[in-house]
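Researcher: For the record, we're logging two predictions in this thread. I'll number them. Prediction 1 follows.
Model: Prediction 1, sequence and structure:
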Amino acid sequence: MPSPAPDTPRARTFRYDLTASLVVFLVAVPLCVGVAVASGVPAELGIVTGIVGGLLTGFLPGSSLQVSGPAAGLTVLVYEAVQTYGLAALGVLVLAAGLLQLAMGALKLGRWFRAISVAVVQGMLAGIGLVLIAGQVYALADLEAPGSGLAKLAGIPGLVLDVAASPEALAAVCVGVGTVVLLVVWPRWKAAARVLPAPLVAVAAATLAVAVFGLPVARVEVKGLLDAVQPPGGAEFAALADVAMLGTVLAFALIASAESLFSAAAVDRLHNGARTDYDKELMAQGAGNAVCGALGALPMTAVIVRSAANVQAGARTKASRVLHGVWLLVFAAAFPAALGVIPVAALAGVLVHAGFKLIPWKDLGPLWREHRGELAILVTTAVAIVVGNLFEGVLIGLLLAVAKTAWQVSHVHIDVTEEPVAEEGTQPALKIRVLGNATFLRLPKLLDALEALPADRELHLDLSGLRHVDHACAMALATWQERHNALAGAAPPVKVTPLAGAEA
């Protein structure tokens, strides 16, 4: 009789990682396929990106427990890029973005992503979520969505009428809505949710319902893994000379990097293991995207849904995420036809649910009560993404965040007091003390206070409390002093206590 396998710490760790890898694999399959379909590319390309995220990025140092793959957060940008430049150009865009991420990691820029305003990131995710929902409600009915975010929103009343008039569209909507309901309800059954993840259950149930009842709904089109892989050619690389394409590359790199590194920060809060090395994680993501681009696949990021599932399933080391890539490869090689039975409406339901979760609903109330400026940045960023596009919306959000910070930092306080009288019968001199940071943003307030002072009194302007004064304020103060002395006539000139060690 063979002896049982030794229960060593290494063996126990492997068992935890093996179990976690299977859970992450079951979560990843519907998400990889759904993101690909929503991005307007063959479903297999989403699987390819998931495989690279496991087998390559999973091996590399950085964050040991977060899992990479195609993400809903880049769906809108990928769809726009494919519609503008064509599917053939996707590979070179992703490859260039990956090389840029590698360069940023080598230059130690990963840690600086932590300095991005949280309101901008939340606004970016909220905007992506809104556009994702607006686009996928059309896919719920097996209908094609309009191009822009505003057109999607404006077309929803017409969509309702089209669904009401079409039994096929109504059947697809029932499948999609049923998927969303299962995604919401299943996690509440905690014992079952620990065994089978909600996305897998929802998609499997929708697929079974369509097969049993013979519903006339669209299904995922399958080409085969090798047929879907199309490495970029020379013509696609030559197109990088286009400034617009370079802007798309920059958007891919920055947004994928920000999403990955913010995901890493979130995953670090879920476990007590080793913390993320942000620069190494950025390089790992860059290496993964470079390979995905060479294969013509979707861009990857670290994905919080899969990463959280990995931690909650008990993963101990990076072996769990590598093994999840192995299972994806085996699934794609052995069971490619399984993708062809999945209804598109079910995947649309998965992404509608994912888009809803991207919106930070719980943070809106506290922001309204305590930080309305941050809420304004969040809402403006989200609206700009819906009205325009992802890259422009994020830039607008960053500019607003910088402007808000500059306004808050350039606080200046003006204190006017009377000094002791030197001789009886004379008016006391006024001491004007200026404190804080005098910048052009506060120049109107500063000049209004100075110009309201009486011209016939002795004035003492004390600037020693200023920490910083910019050129505009320095010139304005000098001009005011000259004008006051010229208008005061016989009154004593303004006495000035200069800056004491402040930056000028």
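Researcher: Logged. Prediction 2.
Model: Prediction 2, sequence and structure:
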Amino acid sequence: MDRMSALDSGFYFAESENTPMHVGSVAVFDGPAPTYGDVVRLLLSKLPMVPRYRQRVREVPMQLGRPMWVDDPHFQILYHVRHTAVPRPGSDEQLRNLAGRVLGQRLDMSKPLWELYLIEGLQDDRWAIISKVHHCMVDGVAGSDLMQLMFDLSPDATHEAPRDWSPQRTPTGAGMVAGALAEAVAHPLRQISSMPAGGGAGRIVKQLVDSGKTVASTLPSLAKQALTPTARSLNGPIGPHRRWAWTSGDFAELKEVRTALGGTVNDVVLAAISTGFRDLLQGRGELSSDKLVVRTMVPVSVRSDSQKGNLNNQVSCVFVDLPVGNPDPLARLESIRGQMDEYKKAMQAVDVPSIIGMGDYVAPTLLSLGVRAALAAGQVWCQAVTTNVPGPPVPLYVLGRKMRSAYAYVPIAGGTRCSIGIFSYQRTMTFGINADFDAFADVDVLSAGIRRGIEELLEHARAKQATPEVTQPEVEQPAPAADGGKPRKRSAAAAR
């Protein structure tokens, strides 16, 4: 029995009728497809590695404490693992449409918060897996660690036989209230006692002062963002249905752009996405200014190496202005690069895990009301969510079948009607675009624009690499008398 962290509780309380808060993915494999029974037995053999998959959420009465994870005494894997197909030969579009419907539906919050679908019938003898896991259960980077649940590094991997499992006793309501009250007292004391002797209170004060200085130093940037015109037409109410699209790029292409034009691969990715949003807004006739931006929230993992395997969310975020109004793709890349460099400096100066941990002191009832009120009110500060989840550079297998590609699904909420999940696997980077059905009938324009953005930057990178360095011609200048009056060669630039 575990208690949710404050951040995980926020994701749990954010769930509503029109706001399913699960993350997901679509993985496509080379055939033939395994049987449904083989998939079920595989998962049963792996579940002991991740006990959370047999647990459900239990709220503390009167919300006197954060929600708990407890074993589900009625766990039935046949409910969570499902089997369907598209009409043969199923196209990518048919798979996307099916995935959009499946991923757009809410999980049953009274059961363990995950589902998996085995999809047959794809063309070229392929098949797929659609997976859904609630965001309160695991964030994207931890999700990469959970690939071991059913993925193998070798097609010849063997698996243990499923083992019997008995759920732990579910606590009573009175017991949960007592535990919550005890935790409310014990947790702050543990935090303070874990600090070096004599430095507890002083260290807390110092962290707050240092954090305040860093926040103050970033105020000019925040003020500038507040005055920057944003594409607010991308904000608005969210309905219950979703459109989903995807595109991809070769990792070698992105590295080539980075090498020639500077920055990081993430900078290049964001620059390509800015091209996609520019095409989208241009198609809608909404490029109102050359200073127009689409502000995207970029989650940043603060999980340390020692925290790998910990299922609690460990994320912070930054807000990046994608300069969609600027017609120059190189200027857009440079702007994004400058913003990310500034954020990196600020993140290094702040103890982000400690700040996230401060949420553990917020009263659960206030946390619940705060999250729900903020999402219901909506916001216009950011227009998109863009998250990059690094995947493995080596091939993965399920029951001996190689995974060909994978696409990430990121939820939308709080008036932000579009999210882009980026996933790297071997030599490919994919972009999974989740958008509100009514607001993004033109989601394919965004998808095609991202691909066009990659090609546009690649063209500039190759043009720069092909341009030879211009060398200055040498001219003869009279030498000083000490050199015997012999002429000495200098470059034309030096001569000027």
